[in-house]
Write a structure and sequence with these properties.
20 helices; about 525 residues; 6-stranded mixed beta sheet
Length: about 525
């Protein structure tokens, strides 16, 4: 994941690393040019040389400023683009038709958001790390030219400082990962609370929901504080190591100056470089913590992307005009055969039987489902789901107008009794339903959702409890409208509504993964199990 993030904009990242390195080298050149001014102009009292070398100092500062502006701008841009690339990877995985993305929606939002942002910092680690090493190398070259002994101290000490920083940064990876997991859990709870706010208020569970979020938030805070404490200890320890190293460099340089091995200008340059080297060394130690956080987040991102899909996807196609004959064989033993054009009702005595059947028909689970003899597992998911359309009970409306959801064909609206809803809205079909249809009542949302499913005119339509939020008179109208509109096309109704079942050609009673009774609604009323499920 980190390599993919760093490779999002390789040219920009390379240019950013070059410009930031140029900025660091220009900063390193400042004490060197000042030392030359002292040796070549001040000591010799040459005013012409003084002006020339002062012009060199001005040029160095000009390079320093311009390279910093463009380099840091490109560095920030590559970080954002890397985060964007990883965020799009997660979004594509979550939205993939094959499904299977792990975690709740809030956790996935946190992963695609804060984890992608943190993992994108690898670009800055690369650019700033190269720049810091370039600055250290440039300083070492100058010091070696002035004194081999002083240069060797720098070249030998830098790897030791980097190695110790690397070792100290190891615990930060696990802590950063734990911190992001706790943050994702808190985000997931908040998302669940907001999504179900209407239900929470309806059952008076505001206090319980609030306490649930407070507990998750406190856990996230504790993890954040633990990570901050560990990071603070890391920074403090690395600063001590860096400080000790610079003390050694300054002591060696001072002793050489006292012995006359280096000039006054070289001493000034050496002291200035020693002070300058604090910046690159501190930056390298800070990058260790930054890289640790990026690695922890990258692991979470990789976990999402590596999760196998819930279903397999074929490459075949279906006929342009399928007849609509269905054959379903679930792993638990449930077998259904629906003839082309048949209107079939399914009553399940156990909720898991209904879920398993709907998941198989919707291609949310891998199960042998044949349409006109073709296994839907061998067909592309989008085509299979367009042909066998499953309208679930909990279907959510899209944000926009009624027409955006249902289209403007009056037949589906009338069949779903949604035309009555449209008549009550201030702007009719052009009325805004709001996010998830929040401006509508439960019954209105259900009718609009049913009209949306009917408007697709799918060869096979599967309806799951489409009338639970409407009154009896409206339910009878919908039952008549659906059977009339779907005449000649295969329709499967998974419900316990007598009005809907009475319009079916055949009704199947399912219990524990098997069809235990079959017949018309009027015939099955004699079965006590059927009466308990449908008429009780």
């Amino acid at each position: 994941m980190l390599r993919r993030g760093a490779g999002a904009r390789p040219r920009e990242l390379g240019l950013a690393a070059f410009l930031v390195s140029l900025h660091q080298l220009a900063e390193a050149a400042v004490p060197v040019t000042v030392g030359w001014v002292i040796d070549l102009a001040v000591v010799s009292r040459d005013s012409g040389a003084l002006l020339r070398w002062l012009a060199v100092v001005v040029a160095v500062f000009a390079v320093l400023a311009s390279s910093a502006y463009f380099g840091y701008f490109l560095g920030a841009r590559t970080v954002r683009m890397a985060a964007h690339r990883m965020r799009m990877d997660v979004a594509a995985r979550v939205l993939h038709p094959a499904g299977g993305a792990p975690g709740r929606s809030g956790e996935l939002v946190s992963t695609a958001g804060s984890d992608a942002d943190r993992a994108g910092q690898v670009c800055w680690v690369v650019a700033a790390g190269i720049a810091a090493l370039a600055a250290l190398a440039g300083g070492a070259v100058v010091l070696l030219d002035a004194s081999v002994e002083l240069g060797l101290v720098v070249l030998g000490g830098v790897p030791l400082v980097l190695l110790s920083s690397r070792l100290l940064a190891r615990p930060l990876v696990g802590r950063a990962e734990a911190e992001q997991e706790s943050l994702a859990a808190a985000t997931a709870v908040a998302t669940d609370v907001i999504t179900g706010l209407r239900v929470i208020k309806g059952i008076g569970a505001e206090a319980a929901a609030g306490e649930s979020y407070r507990a998750a938030s406190r856990a996230a805070l504790r993890a954040r504080l633990a990570a901050a404490n560990l990071n603070g200890g890391y920074v403090g320890a690395t600063n001590v190591i860096t400080g000790l190293f610079l003390v050694v460099v300054a002591w060696v340089g001072g002793r050489l100056a006292l012995d006359g091995a280096i000039s006054i200008g070289e001493l000034v340059a050496g002291v200035g470089l020693a002070q300058f080297l604090i910046g690159p060394l501190e930056r390298l130690t800070e990058l260790g913590a930054l890289l640790a956080g990026a690695r922890g987040s990258a692991r979470r991102l990789a976990g999402v992307l590596a999760t196998p899909p819930a279903v397999t996807e074929g490459t075949g196609t279906l006929p342009t005009r399928p007849e609509g004959a269905l054959r379903v064989q679930l792993p638990g033993g449930l077998a259904l055969d629906v003839a082309a054009g048949e209107h079939v009702g399914v009553v399940t005595l156990r909720a898991d039987d209904a879920s398993a059947l709907l998941d198989a028909l919707a291609r949310d689970a891998d199960a042998p489902v044949q349409l006109d003899g073709t296994d839907l597992r061998d067909v592309g998911l989008d085509e299979a789901r367009r042909t066998v359309l499953v309208a679930r009970h909990e279907a959510t409306l899209f944000e926009g107008t009624v027409a955006d959801n249902t289209g403007r064909d009056p037949a589906p609206l009338a069949a779903a009794a949604a035309d009555e809803v449209v008549e009550t809205l201030p702007e009719g079909l052009d009325s805004d339903v709001g996010e998830r249809g929040r401006t509508l009542s439960g019954g209105q949302r259900q009718r609009i959702g049913l009209a949306r499913a009917l408007a697709e005119h799918a060869p096979v339509l599967v309806l799951h409890d489409p009338t639970t939020a409407v009154d009896a008179a409206t339910e009878h109208r919908i039952a008549t409208g659906v059977s009339t509109l779907r005449a000649g096309r295969t329709t499967v109704v998974v419900a316990s509504s007598p009005a809907l079942l009475a319009r079916c050609h055949r009704v199947l009673l399912v219990d524990r993964g098997a069809v235990v009774a079959s017949g018309s609604h009027a015939e099955l009323v004699a079965d006590a199990r059927y009466r308990q499920a449908v008429l009780a």
